[in-house]
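Need tokens for this chain, all 347 residues.
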Amino acid sequence: MQNKKLEHDIDWGTLGFQYIDTGKSYRAYYKDGEWGPGEITNANTVTISEASPALHLGQQCFEGLKAYRTKDGSVQLFRVDQNAARMARSAEKVMLPPYPEEDFVQAVHEVVRANQEWVPPYGYGATLYIRPFLIGVGDVVGVAPGPETIFGIYVTPVGPYFKGGLQPASFMVSRYDRAAPHGTGEAKVGGNYASSFSAGKEAQANNYADAIFLDPATHTKIEEVGSANFFGITHDNVFVTPKSPSILPSITKYSLLELAEKRLGLEVKEGDVYVDQLDQFKEAGAMGTAAVITPVGSITYEDKKHVFYSETETGPLTKALYDELTGIQFGEKEAPEGWIQTVNLNQ
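Here are the structure tokens for all 347 residues:
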């Protein structure tokens, strides 16, 4: 854990993707069948029973979103209602009581407002990362959900997830599976990420940015790129992204599907992406809240490397999508209706 820093001690231009204690978090508690009122707390720790099912059974889920500083100094959120809805779906998957979606949105506004001095200044590409979480707690020895639940949010200022920002990265196809076909792959739960550690470590040991996971049923189709969704752009300008019940439905992915079609005029498609048919794509990328868009320069599969647009330069359509998305997020471009909420910093 890093010690809390003052805003002027941070070099926003070199900020990495790591935890910084900002001093203010959010907590709410579920007990006896109902949620109590949530509040801002100065604690960055959580005390729970050693028998809590979050520890032993993986009964937990989480979300990830960001707050963005605009040129005029205001702070805005990107599609926060979609994060609220996705967390509710994840919670139901692991039998946690969903945190009410309206309360989720309000809590995000409150915690960002309380930490507004930690939202990086406009112009650096840095953001305030927001991590809501739900954990099942209480004394459980058998295989059963917890009698109580904690909802929390912490925030931390972050820079790019992959070093180098919008620079092509190389990936390798993993021999490991990320999630089961009819399991929790579409839910944002910790087990899906813990199961990717070995694959990611192996990829990095071989000088790749991360691992690519194939579908667990047939091992023939691309599903996810590490902790992000995959997209490819075909030679006839079709934006293609995998569709599967074991893929996390990325909010960034569905935003890019809409932007690709309505602003770039591309045909869009969710469907199978076969790993032995990569030559259909002239550009490719990884997309997600943390990664934003990372161009995929190459994919290595069974000792064969496939290079897309370039291993050193970003493709023009990938760059155009990145500019549209980040332009909306940072208030430089007009957003589709309902995508942006502005945080009232003076409330």
